Amino acid sequence: MHPILKLVAQRLALGFLLLIAASVLIFAGTSILPGDVAQQILGQSATPEALENLRRELGLNEPALSRYFSWLGGILQGDLGTALTNGRDIAESLGTRLANTLFLAFWAALISVPLAIFLGLLAVRYKDRWPDKLISGVTLTTISIPEFMIGYVLIYWISIKFGWFSSVAIINDSMTLGQKLNAIAIPVMVLTLVVLAHMMRMTRAAILNVMQSAYIETAELKGMPMLRIIRKHAFPNAIAPIVNVVMINLAYLVVGVVVVEVVFAYPGMGQYLVDHVAKRDIPVVQACGLIFAAVYIGLNLVADIVSILANPRLRHPK
Amino acid sequence: MNDQLKHLSERVTKGLMTRREFVGRAAALGVTAAVANSMLATAAKAAGPVRGGTIKLGASGGESTNTQDPALTASEVPLYNLRHWGETLVDVGADGNLEMRMAESVEGSSDAKQWVFKIRKGIPFSNGKDMTPEDVMLTMQRHSNEDSQSGALGIMRGIESMKVDGDNFIVDLSTGNADLPYLMADYHLMIQPGGGMDDPAAGIGTGPYTIEFDEPGVRHGFKRRDDYWDADNRGFAEFSEQLVLNDATARTAALQSGQVHMINRVDPKVASLLDRAPSLSVKSTAGRGHYVFIMHVDTAPFDSNELRLALKYAINRQEMVDKILRGYGSIGNDFPINAGYPLFDNTIEQRDYDAAKAAEHYKKSGHDGSPIILRTADGAFPGAVDAAALFQQSAQAAGIPLEIKREPNDGYWSEVWNVQPFCASYWGGRPVQDQMYSTAYLSTADWNDTRFKVPAFDDMLLQARAEIDEVKRKEIYSRMAVMLRDEGGLILPMFNDFVGAIAQNVGGWVDDPNGPLMNNKAPIKCWLTDA
Fold first, then answer.
1. Which of A206, A230, B343, B481 could staple A241 via S-S, CB 3.0–4.6 A?
2. Which of A149, A175, A275 to mutate to test the interface with B (most CBs of B within 10 A)?
3. How near does any CA of chain A get to the CA of B412, in Å?
């Protein structure tokens, strides 16, 4: 078998094992959460009879181990079960939420990743001069401000004062792409500002590291223009760490944006998960946990494979 | 009203002038802002309801776990949903009187043991079938079934039997209850076809709207029904949409930028600032809900009434209203009833902050001086952590050591409230005194969260319940209030107002003390003046 195919297959298998391990952790973790789903569903106004009836109906009295295996078995067949709280099919409601989350993450990534890398290159080109300092200063400032704060500031100016974009990012299927993009404009800005600095700084550091090498000096002595050296010689060699940090940020855009979702009432996975944690709706929490774990594992897999492909030494192992 | 002002206010209702402009012009004519605003309200009412358009509500209190099943409704967003598609037998009106809905009339026997509801005829459900007395009975049976998960189970327990007789739905009680019709206004008891036994979450009822889309935790949409029976009074907008906006800032921003027409739960901290915006107005309605600190009277050290009195005197109620509610509320008097209830006795002496008296009672209690642990959480009520800190300070001044233990919001209602002996909590009001007392202060009540179990109190409650003579009832309620105030485990510093906000183009607003945003009926009873 081609070594690269073999490598990918190996990685995939490992990733799958890791996912199974994660499922055990998720199940164990959700089982030891304090509180009780019946109490949470019925809230403060629950009577003991109603509680007991609901508990019996939800099968909360069965042992944990048998619940784990029936759950895992269901997932392997693509059945995530139904939500305890409102009896809806989890796969269906989760599907919409996941699609929304990916939609937001996609547009945020589409803007932030090229922008971060471009700014990183620019910072290297003008190292220690004002463009470098300005880029670093601004991006570090935006990453240091809590994201909800950036969100509120942008809402105040862009939505209330100027009325350009909507402050409520609720999207649905009946909207056109243009309407959807209008709705998510401010959240995308916020997310871009939040993830920009990390990727930009890593690009800058990785390329600067390569710039110390002898072959860069040679290229410089040949009289090549600086940006060209960076693009053709430095960047390919700096790809591995950059891809890694880009993947971490992409994973963050998928699984870590619950605060932004709340501020903009965006119907994504984060808010969905938090609601169900609060209600102790265990099947949904487990399904979300598993998807988040899969996203992390998957993106890291991609990062690994890309850095191997980008590096001839790893691509052709002796 | 002079002609010029009248002309101006008409311009506002037609949307030719903003509210702020009007108030400014009126001020130039020597009219105060308050008077100017009330003139506007009159003008809007005189203009009459406008039909059409899409009225949008931005509401907090919705989760992606919500369902349309009325039995399981426990938070605010699902409640707005129910009001759109469903209706109860009766409603409690803004004036506290009964308003007939699915029942045409109601009549009780002289001992208040039998109640006859005459059911209206020819009212169609949204599935096309006519509502019948059988549907009413099946609905009540579903909620009173011991197997049901209904939040209304508690209030259905006193019912001995139900039957249908021609057009009448007849309820027999084991003990007389003069307030039974009020209990039938409970929002869980939406009349559903076949009692909702087959598909409780179908959202089929006799209300003015049908469900258009239903995305829990995100948005809910409704379309007006052409065959609605009471179209003169409800269901003016062609479409009604509810966006779930749990974040307070997101909610106010959505209203300010015109993406919604009304919002609930305006944070008292920003209410007065928000009200300055010209495009909207903040609506604060005195209600029956209250914020409390509750002590278990059967657990040391709270089993000593002297210590309980010490703590009651050690709380500064006015300060709480000023600082926690920012004035959007009123002070409490350690019993859960205020002027919002019928038969309220306003002559009961108000308990004030008195450090000297508190210290005296504390000394008499013989408490060993160890810190008394007060549990609180952000989720106990808005500002609960700050309120506990204020309580600690004022108690400190009386020499009573309070130790605040901050608990996580998560699990607060299952692990702390009704479990720990001293904690912060809240109560939404009930339409009548009997229901409030039976819910939390009767010996056998499930949510007797102060463990107040006094036979004499129970006797008075049952006596008042069956008493038809209002003067006598009022007298009994007054004695009960004083007893709870002086012996109970309830420290009630404040009654909170419902604070909401509506856009300037919303007409038909009426203050309703029964619940937030016109008892959750603002979307179905208001209209858009520029629709």
1. A206
2. A275
3. 9
Q: What's the start-to-end Cα distance of chain A, in Å?
A: 16
Chain A residue numbers touching B67 (CB-CB < 8 A):
85-87
What is the b/e burial string over B298-333, where b = at least 16 CB atoms within 10 angstroms of the residue's CB? eeebbebbbbbbbbbbbbbbebbbeebbbebbbbbb
In CATH, the architecture of A96-280 is Orthogonal Bundle (1.10)
B91 - beta bridge partners?
Answer: B99
Sketch the domain layout of chain A as residue ranges.
Answer: 96-280
Q: Minimal Cα–Cα distance from B244 to chain A, Å?
A: 7
- Binary contact (A166, B215; C-beta < 8 A): no
pTM for the whole structure: 0.81
Residue B429 has a pLDDT of 84
Using the Cβ of B175 and the Cβ atoms of chain A, whether some distance falls under 8 Å is answered with: no
pLDDT at A192 over 90: yes
Q: What is the DSSP string of B107-174?
A: EE-TTS-EEEEEEPSSPBPTTSPBP-HHHHHHHHHHHH-TT---TTHHHHTTEEEEEEETTEEEEEES
CB contact (8 A) between residue A263 and residue B250:
yes
**B206-261 tens-digit pLDDT:** 999 999 999 988 999 999 999 999 999 999 999 999 999 988 888 999 999 999 99
Per-residue model confidence (pLDDT) at position B1 = 42
Nearest to A34 among B147, B246, B411 (CB): B411
Q: Which residues, 6+ apart, have CB-to-CB distance to B193 below 8 Å?
A: B125, B127, B129, B131, B135, B204
Cβ pair A54:B149 closer than 8 A: yes
What digits encode the pLDDT tens for the residues A9-33?
888 899 999 999 999 998 888 777 6
Contacts of B260 in chain A (CB under 8 A): 168
Contact check, Cβ <8 Å, A262/B415: no
ipTM: 0.76
Q: What is the DSSP secondary-structure string of B292-345?
A: EEEE-TTSTTTT-HHHHHHHHHT--HHHHHHHTSTTSEEE--SSS--TTSTT--
- Which chain B residues contact residue A263 at CB under 8 A? 247, 249-250
pLDDT value for B30: 57
Note whether B344 contacts A: Cβ–Cβ < 8 A. no
